[in-house]
Specification:
This protein has 222 residues and is mostly helical. It has 13 helices and no strands.
Length: 222
């Protein structure tokens, strides 16, 4: 991968100051303590973060849709008003759900569907549904009713950890933190794995269009 050229020498100090010199310090060990190379690492990290957007997008979409289908099967199209479900939710996520319902109802009125609610909720909400408190409500028949491509050996706990890892990785990228030395290849595989637990064809398609592996291979020379 060809990284963009560094700024012209006379512009470099002001650009570094705008970005903040301390930010480049994070890359100095990998860059052999050279400021110019650390800037290349910084640019590369940005490209790497950008490359993760599609796979993380589909991982979250596929995951939340899987839970939505399970909730509809359990409590009907208006699962978000089911009192049993609401009682199980942690108060933080119950508040988030009720806020989403109020907001989406105001926007869509009697055209409101579960799909409007799904798109208004956070990844953390769906991770919450993989916790032990939903063992009987959603997971009584195992993981396959929700994640149909999972083997029988896969546990709810393993799925929760996988969702948590993908969510935390997405948040790290969203906060513009360094990811280049945090196992990006493994994290890429985790996101694909989450997709694959629901649909192998979708996983293979996302993998085929993902540029992350190529960006990883474009690591700057120190």
């Amino acid at each position: 991968m060809q990284l963009p050229n560094s700024p012209a020498a006379d512009k470099f100090p002001t650009i570094v100051a705008a970005i903040q010199h301390e930010r480049l310090m994070r890359y100095m060990p990998a860059a052999g303590n050279r400021v110019d190379v650390s800037f290349s690492y910084y640019i590369w990290n940005c490209k790497l973060s950008e490359s993760f957007h599609p796979v993380l997008h589909y991982a979250e979409i596929v995951c939340r849709n899987a839970f939505n289908r399970a909730l509809i099967a359990r409590a009907g199209d208006h699962w978000f008003r089911d009192n049993t479900f609401l009682a199980i939710l942690d108060h933080r996520f119950r508040d988030d759900l009720q806020e989403a319902v109020a907001s989406e109802t105001k926007q869509h009125s009697d055209r409101l569907t579960a799909h409007h609610i799904v798109s208004a909720l956070t990844f953390g909400f769906w991770e919450h549904l993989a916790t032990k408190r939903f063992e009987r409500y959603l997971w009584a028949k195992g993981v396959q009713p929700i994640f149909p491509c999972a083997t029988k050996a896969v546990t709810r706990e393993e799925i929760q950890l996988l969702i948590e890892g993908v969510r935390r990785w997405r948040n790290r990228i969203a906060h513009h933190r360094a990811i280049f030395d945090k196992g990006p290849a493994r994290k890429h595989n985790d996101a694909l794995e989450l997709i694959g637990l629901v649909c192998g064809d979708t996983r293979d398609w996302v993998r085929s269009m993902s540029t992350t592996t190529g960006v990883i291979q474009g690591r700057p020379s120190s």
